[in-house]
Amino acid sequence: MNLLVDDQLLSRVLRRDVLPDRVDWSQPIFTTGYWYVRLCQAVLGAATRPGVLSISFMALIDARRDQALAALTELPDEIGLLSLRALGPTIGRLRLDHQLNILSLEALAAAIHLQATVVLSTRSPRLEQALAAEGRHVEVVEQRRM
After folding, report:
1. I need a surface site. Which of 2, 32, 54, 138 has the fewest CB within 10 A?
2. Cα(68)–Cα(116) distance, rounded to whole angstroms?
3. Is residue 112 in some structural domain?
């Protein structure tokens, strides 16, 4: 089984933060392009617009922050990221059945392609409903705030 994580959980993985124990983190971890881009925008653009996703990086001590930023700018091999080349046709098909934004459609398509459990840091009712309709499991874990 594979795990598909959102941007906040990807941040925790890259920072080597404590992960929610309700999930078996020994499984292969993937994220989507949009979730990855959102995290990059938040962290790398934090000098002018700090926010929820960037604060946890800024709070790290220098050596750990450097390691986490290196992992962000070049995803480690153990974090999978599917190409839109692989997901595009599925996204196009799913658009007919689900009224979701492109970020959620990519997550849904990736979950189907990977046969993954989707792990979300916060509730996303429309995405959760679409995942259930497509036979994919979703786990919503509580985020602790820094």
Report:
1. 2
2. 25
3. yes
Q: How many domains does the chain divide into?
A: 1
Q: What is the pTM of this model?
A: 0.92
* pLDDT-derived band at 47, boundaries 50, 70, 90: low
Distance in angstroms (rounded) separating the CA atoms of residues 123 and 60:
27
Pairwise CA distance, residues 72 & 75, whole Å: 6
What is the mean predicted confidence (pLDDT) over 88-112? 97
| Residue-number span of the structural domain to which 116 is assigned | 2-140
